[in-house]
Amino acid sequence: MQSLSPVEEVKRGNMAEISIVIPTENSVNNLDALLLSVFVQSLQDTEIIIVDNASTDKTVDLIDRYTKFDKRVKSIKSDKKLNIIDCCRIGAENATSPYVYFMNGTTFAYIGQGCLRRLWDNIRKYDTDLVYSPCAIVNALTFDVLPTYQIKPEKFIRKEVFDINDMPAWLLFRLYLAPWAKLYKREFLKKVDFLPFNETFFLECLFKAKKISYDLNNLYGCHMMPQDIKITDALAEEQANLELLRKYNAYDKYKTAYIYHKMRGMWLEIMKAPNEQKEALFEQMKKEFINEDFSQYDFNVLRKEDLYWFMRDIKNVNYESFKAMYLENIV
């Protein structure tokens, strides 16, 4: 007997419309709010796959209670430490729905009313590989919205369905580069290498997708706590991004966008860090870029950016001047 396609299976009621994949790690304080935002969605025909990354708190007990509370919830437990993208990969490999939606259970995350139905309607309307959507990132202590990139691509692409070649080069690193908040076709994810960093994973999705659509409402939100920041972790992710650009022979095209993204990413890490860490992180940032040859980049692009003054006069910038320019009175 010929097997049915995932879409035909859904039509016959044999599988859910969307698989929601949630990596967790010591998430006992985050999971209730996240799952509540899923349970109240207007689109109820979902399966919820929680992939726990060797939690040492009561997360596993909480997940077990949810599997008994709602038959849509499924649990996968790892006894060894994985990175978060490996958890996403395991969840996607176990998904049965035609579409997959990732939520980060390691942070306080949630989705707005109607989120899943909006994205589901979009991906079916345009038959795209993925639907891009942004994220609102909030400081959990001050409730300030962090200045993440929230560029509206329709102003620069002017197409309802596009691929990476339709985007101006500077726009690539202005998108919200993380697995979360987007809806993916499951068959498309089978073609993607689940590279070990959030941004690198989604960048590869952009390079491989033949058709992308978007919904620019902030349907996904997360709260970030000030934390111990390791600039070395951010630099490791940027190195992986660089290697990906080279893999696709795209470094020359995107190098200006990449270097600014790398610098701005470190700036955002400084903003998120506790006050007592900020100066040391600034010194690490300055050390990273002080010998950079900025003449190789497109200054028609860079001079429009927030950090242009820092780049232009990097050898003379000290922490107090940087703080006054870039850390105070910024939302």
Short key terms for the protein model shown above:
disordered N terminus; globular; Spore Coat Polysaccharide Biosynthesis Protein SpsA, Chain A; 331 residues; 14 helices; 2 domains; alpha/beta
Number of helical segments?
A: 14
Task: Provide the helix percentage.
Answer: 40-55%
Which quaternary structure do these chains form?
Answer: single chain
Shape: globular
Largest sheet: 7 strands, mixed
What is the name of the CATH topology of the largest domain? Spore Coat Polysaccharide Biosynthesis Protein SpsA, Chain A
- Spatial arrangement of strands, main beta sheet: 3-2-1-4-8-6-9
Rg, alpha carbons: 21 Å
Q: Averaging pLDDT over every residue, what do you get?
A: 88
Secondary structure: number of strands: 10
Name of the top-level CATH class of the largest domain: Alpha Beta
Helix-strand pattern: HEHEHEHEEHEEHEHHEEHHHHHH
Q: What is the total number of structural domains?
A: 2
Name the CATH superfamily assignment of the largest domain: Spore Coat Polysaccharide Biosynthesis Protein SpsA, Chain A
The second-level CATH architecture of the largest domain is Alpha-Beta Complex
Question: What percentage of amino acids are in beta strands?
Answer: 5-15%
Could you name the ranges where pLDDT drops below 50 across 5 or more consecutive residues? Answer: 1-14
Describe the structure.
The chain has 331 residues and is an alpha/beta fold. It folds into 2 domains: 6-224, Alpha-Beta Complex (Spore Coat Polysaccharide Biosynthesis Protein SpsA, Chain A), CATH 3.90.550.10; 231-327, no CATH class. 42% of the residues lie in helices and 15% in strands. It contains 14 helices and 10 strands. It has helices spanning 6-11, 31-39, 59-69, 84-93, 115-126, 154-157, 186-189, 198-208, 231-247, 251-272, 275-289, 299-302, 308-312, 319-327, and strands at 18-24, 46-53, 73-78, 99-102, 108-111, 130-132, 135-139, 183-185, 212-214, 220-224. A 7-stranded mixed sheet has the order 3-2-1-4-8-6-9, sandwiched between helices. Strands 5-10-7 form a 3-stranded mixed sheet. Helix 8 runs parallel beside helix 9 (231-247) and helix 10 runs antiparallel to helix 11. It starts with 5 loop residues before the first helix and ends with a helix. The model is unreliable at 1-14 (pLDDT under 50).
